[in-house]
Amino acid sequence: MTEPTTPAAAPESPAAPESPAAPESPAAPESSTPSGSPRASDSPPSEGPVADGATRPAARAPGYPRQWEADVVASDGGILHLRPIDPSDADALRAFHGRLSERTRYLRYFGPYPRIPDRDLERFTTLDHRRRVAFVCVLGDEIVAVGRYEGLGPTPEDGGSAEVAFVVRDDHQGRGIGSILLEHLAAAARENGLRRFEAEVLVENHAMVRVFRDAGYQVSRAYDGGVLHLEFDIDPTERSLAVRDAREQAAEARSVHNLLHPRSVAVIGASTDPSKIGHAVLLNLLRGNFTGPVYPVNPDARSVRGVRAYASVTEIPDDVDLAVVAVPAAGIDEVMDSCLAKGVKALIVVSSGFADAGSHGLVAERRMVEAARAHGMRVVGPNALGVANTAAGVRLNATLAPALPGAGRVGFFSQSGALGIALLQAATERGLGLSTFVSAGNRADVSGNDLLQYWQSDPDTDVVLLYLETFGNPRKFGRLARRLARTTPVVAVKSGRRVPLPARSSRAVPIDDSSVQALFEQSGVIRVATVAQLFDTALLLALQPLPSGPRVAVVGNSTALGVLVADGLLDEELELVGDPVDVGAAASPATFAAAVREAVAADDVDALVAVFVPPVATHGAPYARALREAVAGSGKPVVTTFLAAEGVPAELAEPRADGRGPGPGSVPSYPSPERAVAALSRVVRYARWRATPLGEFIVPEGTRTDEARDLVARLFAEPAPDDPAPRTLVLDDDQTTAVLGCYGIEVAPFRLVGSAEEAVAAAAELGYPVALKATAPRWRHRSDLVGVRLDLTGADAVAAGYAALAAETGGDEVYVQVMAPRGMSCVLEIVDDPSFGSLLSFGLSGLATELLGDRAFRVLPVSTTDAAALIRAPRAAPLLAGYRGDPPAKLGALEDLVLRLGTLAEQLPEVRSVVLDPVVASPDGAVVTGARMVLGPPPTRDDGGGPRRLS
């Protein structure tokens, strides 16, 4: 879903007139009084130039909330910088107001308001950032939009309302800026304890009404004398989050589209020396027959490769959409100055020497991106191989690769520039056609997440390939990949599984491989271990339909090969349909085709593996053609080991309409049966995931979110001024059960006692039978059960059990707890993860399980489908379903427990660790008999429920 352009363009609607002496009416639109004083307005801070040509304020007023600053993507793909207003913005705000049309000022202020008086200017730019908040969107040195709110209640803490308003400069209307301002204002208001917005809009201001209506909130309206009064709660709703995500996808996809569809390209550093990278990029653009003009930039040459050269990009007479930068890192500031002055829309920096070269290069890299974004520009790289688009209307090869694979329907993203050329060569050799290719290098700006957004709506891409080394924002990657994989297969190689790679990107986040595996499984990403497996899987996905199930038939002319295939199918947990069919070494092409046709047409067959080794002095081409014709139109995937060929032999290829490589219906061939079956197995698992319902992201019934947040806030106060270290707080039993209780997670009733008499009294109060437990987990969880006494049914047994435990552990304190029903013991945890913030972990209790590491993980948030998959994922999970006649556990109760703990982890980021151990799963339900909880500083979450922003 794309955001309507009209509302975004609409100016901020004013509110009722206000006396100049009255306090600024918060977010309400500014309206003028008879004397001409408005209510509110905006302007950017006084800016000081920096080395990269961008401008940033030299200082801010005390209390300035820098954490609210954000780079945002407008609906046309351009970048804007959003930040709180500051008193130093007064001049820029006045200039902004002067560039508004009379019509826009009328709609904003409810009357003529030609200039801002000094008194109002000070009021508009001097705010407390709590009750009165204002944001400006800036491009370069200029303000292009302003939004503000002002609390209507006596204090922000009363959970009351605020009046909201915004205005967009006429030449930037239609870019979705109004909706962006509303998102960020709502987030700031919620942070300050407000829960509701109000606005006054002239009835004729249809565009602004649509901004509020289309934001996804439940808006109430009231008319009064040509003014429309709007009110709505600003807590995120399922619809408002869906609107935010759809607008984010459309804007970021458009941003990448602009990069991959330039109308003109400049090569800065285009050298006459064939050994230089600037020469290589220019040559590749020319050889690729780019459909637009190409401009070499070289101050020392009149022409390069016969094309007129320019001393600077500013001397090029026409617009430049894309600039490829091939100059040393030391010269990047001068290049940026000229590109910003020219208005270049996107940069590809193939030069190295930035974050990959150490701290000095990192500073230069960040300065470059800051300057680019401040002027609406996106950057690929630095240290990038480049980008390519094989579409007939573009034919862009802005890379260092001398040749590209043929046109196809596969999108490819690679973090590694050095490996990129080899990857492109391998794709060519395997007959895999590409739609687009991006090698992002250090990923200082454009990343794989941006490409996932683009490919979701790209009609020319059916399969996505990823070569990943590190993650910048893994939570966002998971959200985007899950959405994309529902319609488009995503295949990924993640290097550094065992040996971590050095972080060449300033945005790299360390991430454990078990977390990566959980992320990919949950998102439907097909993970492969090698580049060869990447292309094995991609060929099958690109050329053949998805299987509807795991049932596979085998046809060939060799019994030995047929047995190898059968073994491989069983190893991959696929179902072999019947015995492998052997047509014999002397079979004719027609006989071979008939067997293939019969097998693939069977109702109980979902896929086919065909193996063929030609007898001596027999040509394979007729058999290949017969195979391709026999399976054409079957609607079932077919893989083959044909002549041990790799890729798509010509005889197995169904030519594309444009004659450029194999098209859909071609049959991929693998050099061994094992590789053919492994590729098919990956695709079968993906098809199963895609056919599984997505599930719902729910808040379980009985959740008391506000109570839980208040409780955690009281427990986890800020550290004392003389203790700057991040605070960690281990909760006691009562605190832990109180927090868990807010989410409907009940711990089996227990008492902590210090004597045998207290133990007997507690048992009588709780009711028999009871269990006694040592207080230290190291005693309770020993395999010999030395720290527990179970099924105690009387006072004498309790007294004796207490004495035995006290003697064994050397302590007086013991837990007395109601016995849970007999069942399987499980462990459910919130695991602190540096990249995601938290993960959910589930496994069965026991020494063997711990030794084998038999735990399953899921990334937050978890859906109902995720919860069901988590408890069934460990290898020991069949024990829960009733093993060897044991009664099955109530799996629904475990799923509910997973959802409740997942909701707790999402809503309370200060909760860094929770261990529910053991959870006893039985036919009656799931009983938590032990719990531990640790609070700590909440992790940084780049992809939470907040407003849109670039990393």
TrEMBL record:
Pfam families: Acetyltransf_1, ATP-grasp_5, CoA_binding_2, Succ_CoA_lig. This is GCN5-related N-acetyltransferase. Residues 80-235 form the N-acetyltransferase domain. Residues 1-66, 653-672, 931-951 are annotated as: Disordered. Residues 940-951 have a biased composition (Basic and acidic residues). GO terms for molecular function: acyltransferase activity, transferring groups other than amino-acyl groups; ATP binding; metal ion binding. PANTHER family: COA BINDING DOMAIN CONTAINING PROTEIN, PEPTIDYL-LYSINE N-ACETYLTRANSFERASE PATZ. It comes from Pseudonocardia dioxanivorans (strain ATCC 55486 / DSM 44775 / JCM 13855 / CB1190). PROSITE patterns: ATP_GRASP (PS50975), GNAT (PS51186). The keyword Membrane does not apply. Residues 1-35 have a biased composition (Low complexity). Keywords: ATP-binding, Nucleotide-binding. Residues 737-775 form the ATP-grasp domain. CDD domains: NAT_SF. InterPro entries: Acyl_CoA_acyltransferase, ATP-grasp, ATP_grasp_subdomain_1, CoA-bd, GNAT_dom, NAD(P)-bd_dom_sf, Succ_CoA_lig_flav_dom, Succinyl-CoA_synth-like. The keyword Metal-binding does not apply.
